[in-house]
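Q: I'm writing up a methods section and want to include an example of the input and output format. Could you take the sequence below and give the corresponding predicted structure tokens, formatted cleanly so I can copy it straight into the document?
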Amino acid sequence: MKRKITLLLLSIFVFSAASAQCTFKNTAFKGGEFLSYNLYYNWKFVWVKAGTASMYTVQSNYRGKPAYRASLTTRGNNKVDEMFVLRDTLLCYSSLDMAPLYFRKGAREGDRYTVDEVWYSYKGGNTHLTQRRLFKDGTSKTVNNSREDCVYDMLNIFLRARSFNPEGWTKGHVVKIPIADGNSIDPAQLRYRGKSTIKADNGKKYRCLELSYMELEKGKYKEIVRFYVTDDSNHIPVRLDMFLRFGSAKAFLTSMKGNKNPVTCIVP
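A: Here is the clean output for your methods example:
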């Protein structure tokens, strides 16, 4: 009987350790936060209004347990569609203590259309992933991976990074992260670039932290997105510079509501 109890306690401990290994305290947002943006696209050295983007975070449930659900949607307008079609919809679930649970990205960029999905589970002290990519012709590919370290996707890492404490960081400080998509896990990093003042499309200026999200390509780190987030405890993105396959785009904040903390970084 003692042996059975010991084994039971050990199994509970292992499961708890595996579940908790990728947790993090959320200090930056709460359910009900809604952010909206104007999108601009660079066409032959001219920046043109390309459409809108929005990010909505709610407290929901995932497989019967409380979780955050976050969605990021970009929508190009008809004028820009003639030059470049941009339709991205990202969705993720994370536990209330920020462990990734699920990710989906439906992306139409030019003539290319794919749907990536990632399912996370935590057992035996490892992170287990099921990854699937659906192609435009209806075919798909599924792979399974297991890692000893924590793994993220491009939306779950964004949620977690908002609660990073940058005090003590100097320019060039790097946070290394493995990033999963529908068919691979690749090295990536967040690089701190200092502070700057950014004017949003709501007419306000914000003191911001400048961060680059970079992925490893052909042995070198390539910048994918540069974030300018509020230099307060919310870390709300005020501006995003996106480096796409077919050019570059920018997003500027137009409105925010439901933020967790007071916005204390507005520049007079």
